[in-house]
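I have a small job for you when you get a moment. Would you make up a two-line entry for one protein for me to read? No commentary is needed, just the two lines. Write everything out right here, beneath this request.
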Amino acid sequence: MSAGRSPSPQWRKPSPLGLGVAVDAVSNVAAPLLAGFAVAAIGVVGADSDKFRWPGPVLLCLTVSALLFVTCVQFGFHARRHLYSYADITAWWSEEELRDHRDLLREEQNIDFRLWDRWRGRAYAAYSGGMVMLWVGVSLVLAPPTTGNSSDTGFRWAAAAVAAGAALGEAVWSAYPPVKRWVERRRVLRRTA
């Protein structure tokens, strides 16, 4: 390597290594399944809205949830096309091409990896938002209707509270990693300043 040239970048990989597979599972299996559930629930609430305490807010939450889950699928698709390994490159490029273009291919893989990471983050945010809205919608569905005085009213309020707690837990769980990274960056910046 010449004196003025910086070292070539390394091949990038997800950390932990299973992150790419996890993103695929969320965006290709979980999100479509949950979007279907949200759409089915919209049909039920829309058809029998008089049986729900707050049908309008329920429909809004479930619609936003379905939209976010479908968005997660789209973001996951865009993410997946940018994640590949050195083994994938060797499957498509000849040994001669690899030898002649190794640094260029490594730089290209680094750029694609950064794009994957951005789309992966967007898919995670859409999935997490979809989960929060789904639990809020379920909580509103479980609230007892205003008409009638049933013996299970207390149980329905308890179930609604559990679902609302799940929404809150999902929101905290989803926000924790980015907030933790932000706090750590701020701490490092203060030490270096």
